[in-house]
Design brief:
With 238 residues, the protein is mainly α. It has helices spanning 2-20, 23-60, 63-70, 72-78, 87-100, 104-119, 130-141, 148-157, 166-187, 195-205. Helices cover 66% and strands 0% of the residues. It is globular, with a radius of gyration of 23 Å.
Length: 238
């Protein structure tokens, strides 16, 4: 989608430049901002390398486990269906830590790992559990105490005041996280979006796919003679 958006913007700028006689200005801006993009990327390398390395050291040193224990009370409230000793807990702890530090690129591998681990607790293939939805809500709205990436971008284009956004970012992300978590909790309890009700609809429609890698203790009980799109696993039961 983003590719189409950027191509559309370039095409619109070119067409408008042609009609208004400012094509030279359009081309100059394209070249100038291409150079600016390269400069910004190069400026971010040092910051991203440092914090990605820091997160790797934390993982190797076992700090992720300690971090997981530290935020365990909050995690139990937000992810009650995830066992405290499940690998998803440490992966989510690292993911949240990276997001709090504002290191989006460093957070991505941990987020993918966390979602992969949560999928082992999902008896279906294509229906996100409440825990997976909560993870997405928090990652999208995550509280950011040190917006490292944003500061790096600002520092690349201005020499002073790059860190002046810290307070507004903390306030804005705190509000967004509260709203995101609250909405997720509310929606997962509504009949239309309740996970169990969605499962029933999928079973009735014959479109439910069973997750072969599920390791939880509550597999889905399929009706006798049920034929799903995932035929090789249509006999799953307790």
């Amino acid at each position: 989608m983003m590719n189409y958006i950027w191509v559309g913007l370039v095409v619109i700028a070119t067409v408008v430049g042609g009609f208004t006689g400012t094509m030279e200005a359009v081309m100059n801006n394209i070249v100038d901002f291409a150079q600016t993009a390269v400069d910004i990327c190069l400026g971010l390398i040092g910051i991203m390398t440092f914090f990605c390395g820091l997160m790797n050291v934390m993982e190797k040193a076992g700090l992720c486990e300690k971090l997981g224990n530290l935020i365990a009370p909050v995690m139990r409230k937000l992810f009650p269906e995830v066992p405290s000793d499940h690998p998803a807990q440490s992966a989510m702890a690292l993911y949240f830590a990276a997001n709090i530090l504002g290191i989006g690129n460093a957070a991505t591998p941990f987020g993918l790992k966390a979602m992969q681990e949560l999928q082992t607790l999902n008896p279906t293939k294509g229906i996100a559990t409440n825990a997976q939805c909560m993870l997405m809500a928090i990652s999208t709205t995550s509280i950011t105490l040190i917006p490292v990436t944003a500061i790096g971008l600002r520092a690349a284009v201005q020499t002073e005041g790059a860190a002046e956004i810290i307070a507004p970012v903390i306030i804005a992300t705190t509000i967004s996280t509260i709203v995101g978590v609250t909405c997720t909790i509310i929606f997962e309890k509504l009949p239309r979006w309740k996970w169990e009700n969605i499962i029933e609809k999928e079973i009735a429609a014959g479109t439910l796919e069973i997750n072969e890698n599920y390791i939880g203790d509550k597999p889905i009980v399929l009706p006798e003679g049920y034929k799903s799109v995932n035929d090789k696993n249509n006999t799953v039961a307790f």
